[in-house]
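Hey, resending since the last one bounced:
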Amino acid sequence: MTKLQNFFHSICARILPTGCIVCGVFQDQQICIDCIKLLAHEQLSNYECCRRCANLLNPSEVINHECLECTQNPPYFDESYCLDRYEGRLQKSLLELKFQRRLFHASGLAFAWNALSPAGDQGNIEGYLLPVPLSQGKLWARGFNQSWEIARKIHCSKFLQKNPHILKRHRHSHQQASETRINRQRMIQGQFYINPVYQKLLEDQTVVVFDDVMTSGATLNEIARILKDNGVSRVINWVLLRTLIQDSERHLKS
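The structure tokens again:
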């Protein structure tokens, strides 16, 4: 977003009423107090989730803080922190941001992240924060990267440097929503790379990858693989919404 666009949105925020991105009620903040309370009650950090992939744990998995799938087939990323489930109250706002170009929703979604802080004490982490990139063609078509528009507004340590130029994407394959996990992994292979200008900066660093939605984890796992192949020591996922995989689906997607 350009400086002129930032200035325009700043002026509009001051002179125009703000509608809650969840319930639509006009008030001062992007999300009203009642909706923040509901989100706080429903957020994933209230439940026992896998420390690796952030999916809900079965009772037998709780003692290890890790789901059986991550134990048997460890992903390349080390931890995941997700704000809410995909089917929750923020889904509509995210879809309006992505597909109706309502950029003010990015501020509201970042506001929800900042208010509820799903990453906990991870806010003091040192390293780099990278948004999941769009391909150049997808970026031209949409006009913005929704993950970056949210990530650039979230609060984090001054030692965690945000940079949308380090991680790049070659292309986008067709929609993956209906694919099995194995097919998703195959489709995503080789799609990401590191901008050579920044390659040496990543050696022995911790990298936080920010994404709007985590489904099977195939995209984030491929990104983590690329990052670690380029010398990154630790990869942490910060994700707005998580599609939860039920027990009956875990076997089908494996």
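Strands lie at 18-19, 26-27, 79-85, 127-131, 160-162, 167-169, 192-194, 206-214, 234-242.

Sorry for the duplicate.
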